[in-house]
Each structure stands twice: as C-alpha cells, then as structure tokens.
Amino acid sequence: MPSVPRVVVIGGGTGLSVMLRGLKKKPLDITAIVTVADDGGSSGVLRDELQIPPPGDIRNVMGSLSDAEPLLSQLLQYRFKQVDGLIGHPLGNLILAALSDITGDFVGAVRELSRVLAVRGRVLPAADIPIVLHAEMEDGTIVTGESKIPKAGGRIKRLSIEPEDVAPLPETVEALRRADAIVLGPGSLYTSIIPNLLVPDIAQAIVESNALKVFICNVMTQPGETDSYSVSDHINAIYDHIGRPIFDYVIVNNGAIPPEVEQKYSEEGAAPVALDMEDAERQGYQVIADELVYFHTYLRHDADKLSHHIYQLVESWMVRKR
C-alpha cells in the first residue's frame, strides 16, 4: 500500500488557517510550521508577560486542523469581552499558556492540546522561543516589531530576526527533510511567511529538499506590506531573502472580484494582486491560475478549490517519483 504523501505547509495568519480547512480533507500527512514573530494583541501580551512564543497563529491552525466537536473549536476561539484582565484574550491562547506551564514548555503544550482537539496532522512553531522581527525600509529606517511594520508607512526592503541564530525544533527540520511537498502561503508576505524562512536551518532544509515546492500567492495586496505588488513581486521578495529560486509552482487567483468588494478593500488601501504571470513564467515558475476567490464578509481563498489544486500537484509529483 503506497504511503500517504507528506506535506509541510509554512506560514501563519488567517490565510494559512483557511487553506488547511480544505487540505485536511485530503489523504495527506500534514505538518504545519507556524510563525512565532507575532507581537500584537493577546498573543503579544502573553508573549511579553509569560515569555512564551505567541500562541494566536498556532491556535488558529490547530482549530483548522481539528476533528473535534464544533463546539470545542468555537470554545478555542472564544474571546472574553467583559472580564477585567481577560478582555480580548481568546480562550485557546490562555489554554496554551496554561499548558505551557503545566508541561514545562510551549511545544509540549501544543502537542497536548493537539491531542485533545484531535488535530489531523502536526502543528509546530517555527522555533520554541519568540522571535523579534526587524524591517529595513527603503529609506533606511529600521522598524522593530511584527505589529509595527505594516503601520510604518514605507516600502520594506529587507527583514531580519532576533536572535539571528535561533534554532528550529528538530521535528521541524526533520519534517522538511522527509516532505514530499512543501507549501508556502497564503498569508502576510513579510510578517507571516518570510519570518519562517529567516530561521537559518529552515531555509537550508527547504533549499536542500527534493520535495515539490509550491507558493500560494495572496489575492489582495496588504497595506504597509505589499502595496502595488504583483505576483512576481511576491516571489522576488522571497528570492531576495533566500538568495535563490525555490518554487516549482505558483498558484494564483484569476477570478473576478465584485466591484463593490474591490471598492471596500480600496478604501483600506488594498487592491487585487497584479497577475504578471508571463514574468513569473520567464523566471522558470509554472503558474496555475484559477477562480480561487471567495467572499463572505472578507475575501478569502476558496479552501476546497485551492486544496484540490495542491492535491493534484502532489499526486502527479508522487507518480513521477515512483
């Protein structure tokens, strides 16, 4: 009986969680590597006060991969609204903080909560300590802190992390080495995706891997991060930080966005990512374009369609490897 393909997904934020809801329905062995650079909101408070990695993105990814009762997943996302000292904290963040104390480390907390939630696959933080993110802007200024970077109002030239030599979990490197496919995105380019690649051993493991490598491009630009960016701009930003091309395929949305929705996003400074697919193809990437956009309050990727494309690519890759 052929083994189930091993897929490692890397990122953070809402985009990654949405995609995983579709991907977990496929016969895949999934490992999610999640950024630990978040320093805003509840995650930032718990990170600063308890000296643990920020739990928010981890919580969202676990919720997406969970096979537990829907009520339990709702409980994980519940935010206190009227309790002094707890306002704004999702219950899942507090549970992870408590489990970190009980088990003695954050990774153990993630492992135990994953078991309780019947998480399909594994969820691993990119490192077991919080990472501080620095952005060098094109005007030479340095902005420190993940939550401050999009608010700086400039164009990002390069990111760096502190500590520079942070080590990833051994399980993270092993998952990348054994992967049949590695998927980056969707998510905030500079604050959810690239920070993972700045962990030296993670970048090296991706570069050295013979796995299929896929980049999921965002549907919309993000104010303060990717203003006026095209598909190839996203790819080039990753290239600039790693120093070489790493993707085999790039998946993009070519579906129309309703004018009223586009106007709503325009008022917030966001616009559809320009599809300069010919430029991407000239750089050697194979581009898959489809109507992948879904709108319900916010624009999101269609999780089922996106996961279908990823699964087809993985299946084809596995056939070629045999």
Which geometry do the CA atoms define?
A: globular
* Distinct helical segment count: 13
**Element order, helices and strands?**
EHEHHHHHEEEEHEHHEHEHHEEEH
Biggest beta-sheet profile: 7 strands, parallel
Kindly provide the radius of gyration, computed on alpha-carbon positions and rounded to a whole number of angstroms: 19 Å
- Strand tally, please? 12
Q: Low-confidence runs (pLDDT<50, min 5 residues)?
A: none
Helical residue percent band: 40-55%
Mean pLDDT: 93
Share of β-strand residues: 15-25%
Structural class: alpha/beta
Strand arrangement within the widest β-sheet reads 3-2-1-7-8-9-10
End-to-end C-alpha gap = 13 Å
Descriptors:
13 helices, 322 residues, alpha/beta
Outline the secondary-structure elements.
Blueprint: E1 6-11, H1 13-23, E2 29-34, H2 41-50, H3 56-65, H4 70-77, H5 91-103, H6 106-116, E3 122-125, E4 132-137, E5 142-144, E6 156-162, H7 170-178, E7 181-184, H8 189-197, H9 200-208, E8 212-216, H10 231-242, E9 249-253, H11 259-266, H12 277-282, E10 286-290, E11 293-296, E12 298-301, H13 303-321
Parallel strand pairs: 1-2, 1-7, 2-3, 7-8, 8-9, 9-10
Antiparallel strand pairs: 4-5, 4-6, 11-12
Helix pairs in contact: 1-3, 1-13, 5-6, 7-9
What does this structure look like?
The structure is a single chain. It is globular, with a radius of gyration of 19 Å. The strands form three sheets. Strands 3-2-1-7-8-9-10 form a seven-stranded parallel β-sheet, with helices on both faces. The protein has a three-stranded antiparallel β-sheet with strand order 5-4-6. A two-stranded antiparallel sheet has the order 11-12. It is 42% helix and 18% strand. With 322 residues, it is of the alpha/beta class. It has helices at residues 13-23, 41-50, 56-65, 70-77, 91-103, 106-116, 170-178, 189-197, 200-208, 231-242, 259-266, 277-282, 303-321; strands at residues 6-11, 29-34, 122-125, 132-137, 142-144, 156-162, 181-184, 212-216, 249-253, 286-290, 293-296, 298-301. The chain has 13 helices and twelve strands. Helix 1 crosses helix 13 (303-321) and helix 7 (170-178) packs parallel to helix 9. It starts with 5 loop residues before the first strand and ends with a helix.
